[in-house]
Amino acid sequence: MSIDGRLIWVKILKLSVTLMRLEVRWRILLPAEMET
C-alpha cells in the first residue's frame, strides 16, 4: 500500500470513531431531554 492509501484509511477510521462517539452521546442525551 502507498502512503496516501494509508492516510485515507486513517482518516476513514477517525471519522467512523468520531461518528460512533457522537451516536452514543446522542443516545444518552436524547432520551434524557425527551423525559424532561
What would you say this structure looks like, in words?
This protein has about 35 residues and is mainly α. The mean pLDDT is about 90. It has one domain. The chain is rod-shaped, with a radius of gyration of 16 Å.
Structural class: mainly alpha
The count of β-strands is: 0
> What's the helical proportion of residues?
over 70%
Distance between the termini: 52 Å
Average pLDDT over all residues: 90
Whole-number radius of gyration?
16 Å
Outline: rod-shaped
How many separate structural domains? 1
Order of helices and strands: H
Low-confidence stretches: none
Topology of this protein?
Blueprint: H1 3-35
Structural key phrases:
single chain, 36 residues, mainly alpha, 1 helix, 92% helix, 0% strand
Can you summarize this structure?
This protein is mainly alpha-helical and about 35 residues long. It has one domain (about 1-30).
